[in-house]
Amino acid sequence: MSILQNKVDFVALISVARANSNGDPLNGNRPRTDLNGFGEISDVCVKRKIRNRMQDMGNPIFVQSEDRCTDGFGSLSERASASLKGIKDREEYARRACETWLDVRSFGQVFAFKDAKGFSCGVRGPVSIHQASSISPVEVESIQITKSVNGEKKGKDENRASDTMGMKHFVRFGLYQISINVQLAEKTGFTEADAETVKECLRTLFVNDASSARPDGSMEVVKLFWWKHNCKDGQYSSARVHRSVRIAQKDADGIPSCAEDYDIRLEPLPGLEPEIIDGI
Questions:
Q1: Residue 140 contacts residue 33 (beta carbons within 8 Å)
Q2: Treating both helix axes as pointing N-terminal to C-terminal, what angle do 90-100 and 76-84 enclose, rounded to 10 degrees?
Q3: Long-range contacts made by residues 85-90, C-beta under 8 angstroms, separation at least 24?
Q4: What is the C-alpha separation between 267 and 246, in angstroms, rounded?
Q5: In a designed cystine with 32, which of 40, 113, 205, 257 is the match (CB 3.0 to 4.6 A)?
Q6: From CA 134, how far away is CA 130, in angstroms rounded?
Q7: What are the CA-CA distances from residue 97 to residues 4, 104, 157, 228, 254 (Å)?
Q8: pLDDT given for residue 181 in this prediction
Q9: Closest CA to 103 of 81, 80, 82, 86
């Protein structure tokens, strides 16, 4: 398979409706926001979802979540040791890791484990993901919920344990923008086919991602813009390409409640036309 030779930039627009897009554990798991009230989704969260979709599509993944582990290994160290055992040359170790796992040759990975006896290896990946930010400030709502703690049957003379109260937080609505670029593919062997896999992962980012915090239909990829440059370094800077997606509220004084409340347009970049894809 051919190595990706042309720089790629892409922007994904995602909508969040009455869902917790990315809870902050240091703030009671409330949806992440900045000091000005704009919603945020961490790059780590986005990469987790992309990895999950890669795995759903049958690709071998190194950083697997516990509930999606498919190979029986209980840690990254075990997984690395089983596949790369005995390799001490750092370049060969990196090459084999990239050949074995799609997420390693996409995002890179640091291999440094206690049982490696001082051996460590770092792989710099070609796919760079920015933190997602909402176009407008978001409204975060909280509701009180009852959580049952009756996990065990009580004895004859024991009273039923009391339910406990908790909080559930969600964004009323937000339109978020994720910006990403792909370059330096030859360092990890990232191929044209890998790039197409990443594109499909982004288009279907929230498939099999539903939970009580993110009910089915509450998060959607509205549009995916995919620019493929005609050279390795790019015809334009990534910053300029990302800025070419212009998004503004149709009613500046209103409160947006859906993606249709925004005007989305592209600033032309001569010689560079994007593929525009509807997500799900």
A1: yes
A2: 110
A3: 88/119, 90/121
A4: 7
A5: 40
A6: 13
A7: 18, 7, 59, 27, 50
A8: 82
A9: 80
Residue 226, number of CB atoms within 10 A of its CB: 20
Kindly state the percentage of the chain with pLDDT values over 90. 80
Q: What is the mean pLDDT of residues 174-185?
A: 86
- Using alpha carbons only, give the angle 213, 219, 220 rounded to the nearest 5 degrees: 165
- The encoded tokens of residue 103 equal 């997420």
Which residues 6+ apart lie within 8 Å of 37 measured at CB? 137, 138
What is the distance between the alpha carbons of residues 186 and 191, in angstroms, rounded to a whole number? 8
Task: Tell me the two tokens of residue 8.
Answer: 């790629």
Give the separation between CA 73 and CA 80, rounded to whole angstroms: 9
* Strand ranges for 148-233 from DSSP E: 164-182, 219-228
HSE of 169 in the Cβ direction (CA atoms, 13 Å)? 15
Q: Do 115 and 81 meet the contact criterion of CB atoms below 8 Å apart?
A: yes
- Is 0.85 surpassed by the pTM of this model? yes
Over range 239-262, report the average pLDDT: 95
Which residue's entry shows tokens 């390799």?
87
Residue 171 bridge partners (DSSP): 19, 140
